[in-house]
Amino acid sequence: MARKILLAGLALGPLAAVLHWGFGLGDVPVFCVSALALIPLAWLIGEATEHAAEHTGATIGGLLNASFGNAPELIIALFAISDGLPDVVRGSITGSIVSNLLLVLGLSLVATDEEDIDTRSLLSSLGLVVWAALLFLIPSVPGWHGDPDRHSLAIATIPVAVILLVFYAGQTWFNVRGRRAAQRTPAPGSWSLRGSLVILAVATAATAIVSEILVGTLEGFADSAGLSQFFVSAVIVAIVGNAAEHGGAVVVARRGKIRLASEIAVSSAAQVALLVAPLAALLSFVVRPPLPLAFRPVELATMAGAALLVGAAVWDRRGTRREGIVLLVAYGACVAAYWVSGNR
After folding, report:
1. Which residue among 5, 122, 267, 295 is least crowded, i.e. fewest CB within 10 A of its CB?
2. More confidently predicted of 198 and 121
């Protein structure tokens, strides 16, 4: 049933384009339709990369997943940069990390009876998120005084972005190297490699178009709804951009596979911190204006705090419903903090 709904939801992308460019509808309905349209597109990108990996094996499959798994978040970030909305970019990065760690893992723990969790890889990824938050201090602290988007902070962001990408590449290489023996022949019913790549390209292009519409209507939606742009990007856009991963993790958890669900949630957060954020910062020198990764204290505190809280929850290699509820309450507190903090 869920698959049929997602397939039907692919019609929302053309609908958003027609409503925006054909009928010139207001920002609020167009934003809502385009936000919903990103959910099935993100799912389709995930499906295409998974089927392509059936043919390419773990090495190239891992590269495809790393390149396209977070495509919606990165594309949204680049359009927001080009539209001069740096706070929206930083907000969506913060919200993606925090929602993956607290909301997704919390829901996964509540949805399952299984308690055993493999903490070795989880703690490694959580450590990388904390490490990223510490590195973000380099351009962030000077940004707490004066213009946070000044060019000098964008320059200071470059080595931070490079270090994060190096760490991410090292982690990806280590994980792929450990899985080389898991290569297998395509399962019955798998898409062809050519078909997977074509669908991947089309879905990514459609995501770019819908993301442009989403970003273009975000300001109008925020004003009409009485919400800050930061809140919209940190909560609504972050959840929408990760909707496919969010839903996938919870579904997997309900099937009793909490180890896999927790891996999806935590590794997705690490990908945003170590791949999406630095790539957006480096590519901003091309799309202009350059983006400093200069986060506010509330953003850095919630990122690092979420990682530390999850680490404490899974330290004993068990995950209970009570701990899941604690994570969900913590996410609610983060959302409240984002509401109160408003725009920079």
Report:
1. 5
2. 198
Distance CA 157, CA 242 (A): 25
| Residue 151, pLDDT above cutoff 80 | yes
Report residue 288: phi and psi, to 5°: 65, 145
Q: What is the DSSP string of 211-254?
A: HHHHHHHHHHHHHHHT--HHHIIIIIIHHHHTHHHHHHHHHHHH
Do the Cβ atoms of 72 and 211 come closer than 8 Å?
A: yes
Cα Dmax for the chain? 59
What is the value of pTM for the model shown? 0.88
Which amino acid is present at 302? T
How far is C-alpha 261 from the geometric centre of its chain's CA atoms?
A: 15
CA distances from 210 to 16, 38, 340 (A): 7, 7, 29
Mean pLDDT throughout 198-208?
A: 89
Extended strands (E) in the chain: none
Which H/E stretch holds residue 34? helix 27-68
Domain map of the chain by residue range? 2-181+190-341
Alpha helices in 144-192 (DSSP H): 151-177
What does the pLDDT read at residue 66? Answer: 55
Report the distance separating Cα 131 and Cα 156, nearest Å: 17
Q: Are 88 and 237 in contact (CB under 8 A)?
A: yes
CA dist 102 to 182, 226, 279, 296, Å?
Answer: 30, 26, 24, 20
> Between 3.40.50.1110, 3.40.1190.20, 1.20.1420.30, 1.10.3720.10, what CATH number should domain 2-181+190-341 receive?
1.20.1420.30
Q: How far is CA 98 from CA 210, 214, 215, 275, in A?
A: 24, 21, 21, 15
For tokens 């958890």, name the residue.
253
